[in-house]
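Good morning,

Attaching, inline, the C-alpha cells for the sequence recovery test we're adding to the shared suite. The designed sequence is right after.
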C-alpha cells in the first residue's frame, strides 16, 4: 500500500522527516515527535516547560486536523522530557488540552533532545 505524508503550515518540519505518515487504505497515523516550534520556526517558551508543552500539543492538534482528526483520535502518545521534575507542569498542560479519555501514554526522561532549548517532545499514533 502507498503512504501519504501529512503536513501542516503551522508547524513545519525543519529537517528531513515527515510530520506524519498514513498508509493509504488504512486508518493509522504515525506522528513524528513534535517540539515547541511555531509556524515560523521559533522556539516557543524557552526555559518554560508548560509553555513548550502547550505548543507541542497545539502542533499535534494541527497535524491531526490536517489528517482529518483531532486530539481525541490519538490512541497512544510517547512524551520525552529532559527533567523528571517537569512532569507535573507537563501533566497540567496535557489535562488542559485533552477532554475526556486520555490516550495510552508513556513518559520517558532523556538527557537531552536534539536542541538544547527543547524541554519536551511528544510523538503519537492516531486512528483517523
Amino acid at each position: 500500500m502507498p503512504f501519504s505524508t501529512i503536513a501542516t503550515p503551522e508547524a513545519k518540519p525543519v529537517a528531513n522527516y515527515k510530520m506524519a505518515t498514513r498508509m493509504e487504505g488504512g486508518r493509522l497515523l504515525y506522528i513524528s515527535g513534535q517540539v515547541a516550534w511555531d509556524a515560523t520556526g521559533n522556539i516557543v517558551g524557552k526555559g518554560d516547560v508548560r509553555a513548550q508543552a502547550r505548543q507541542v500539543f497545539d502542533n499535534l492538534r494541527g497535524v491531526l486536523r490536517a489528517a482529518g482528526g483531532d486530539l481525541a483520535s490519538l490512541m497512544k502518545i510517547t512524551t520525552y522530557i529532559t527533567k523528571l521534575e517537569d512532569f507535573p507542569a507537563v501533566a497540567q498542560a496535557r489535562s488542559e488540552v485533552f477532554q475526556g479519555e486520555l490516550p495510552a501514554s508513556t513518559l520517558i526522561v532523556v538527557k537531552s533532545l536534539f536542541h538544547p532549548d527543547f524541554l519536551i517532545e511528544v510523538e503519537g499514533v492516531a486512528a483517523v
